[in-house]
């Protein structure tokens, strides 16, 4: 499918009057932790394409990951040093997670979906450099505050979406940034802190940021009126399906920047769409709630444990499938369909090692090396990506 990339006239972000868009993002140098800073994840030397990585004190060969996206009303392109290091950073590191804080392009640099493309490039970079960065690619969680929560939520609901289309508008959600396009940008769990979801006024909920739409218009490159399809494609709810990862949404009742009802409505939409989601309402304002760190850590730990358990169950069930007996003899995998469908085979690090069309559901896997792989495919008429574990023994 050819991608129609929609261009926008860029509005000047800095003309917007300053408000409390960045909340109370706790600053902390995390100087007691080993770190690697200003890593260029796109290799273009731009400040907005750099990230910092912090490591837990306990020495291990690899660690699960939590990426945290700063809040800035999409205005800042170099704010990773203020990405809630004293709350999210401390809690993540103390509980054995690598903590990653990336920069991304501001609305002065480019309009949506550039910011989403940047964060997807971050995930691909981490997977592509897993060995040198000591990353356990079996679990990559993502978190975000305010506008960072908007992006983190989109990362969750678009993890199986390369392109977004509504009406005559099409967005390239994945992008083509960096040197690791063969790797997956999928994330395994999402935590949204006071993040805006709907960028237009909702009945009974109001507009975010008390901005009369100015912040949103700068991010989108256009006003909401007359551009409803474009705004819908920047809304995480538009992409919800049961294959999405679990969500934790934390939002304060005294938030005067993003109304709490945004988080409540997003949580309901996820649950109605068959996605595991939990809403935590606090009495706080627009910030990452320090008193909810235990809930956040528990959420990511449980998501990681469930993913590991599901893989074990899948392995047990799929190894009994007759398809694998046939495969071992002929080098052919027979998917449970007779359609001609597009498929991808990924190794355990998330790297795509084979892709193409499975004619009548058949895939020749003779060239694969011995090991574990995942086959993902979408049947015609079904949005949900199906995943099968493949164990090559010969």
What this model shows, in words?
The chain is α/β, with parallel strands linked by helices. It folds into 2 domains: 13-309, Alpha/Beta hydrolase fold, catalytic domain (Rossmann fold); 321-392, Immunoglobulin-like. It has helices at residues 85-94, 114-128, 130-133, 147-157, 214-220, 228-232, 260-272, 293-318, 322-330, and strands at residues 35-40, 50-54, 63-69, 98-102, 135-145, 163-166, 169-172, 189-193, 247-252, 277-282, 332-334, 341-347, 352-358, 362-364, 371-377, 386-392. It has an 8-stranded mixed sheet, with helices on both faces. It has a 4-stranded antiparallel sheet with strand order 13-12-15-16. A two-stranded antiparallel sheet has the order 6-7. β3, α1 and β4 form a beta-alpha-beta unit. α2 (114-128) crosses α4. The longest helix is centred in the C-terminal third of the chain and has 26 residues, at 293-318.
Question: Characteristics of this structure?
Answer:
394 residues, alpha/beta, Rossmann fold, 2 domains, 9 helices, 24% strand
Describe, in short, the structure shown.
Helix content is 25%, strand content 24%.
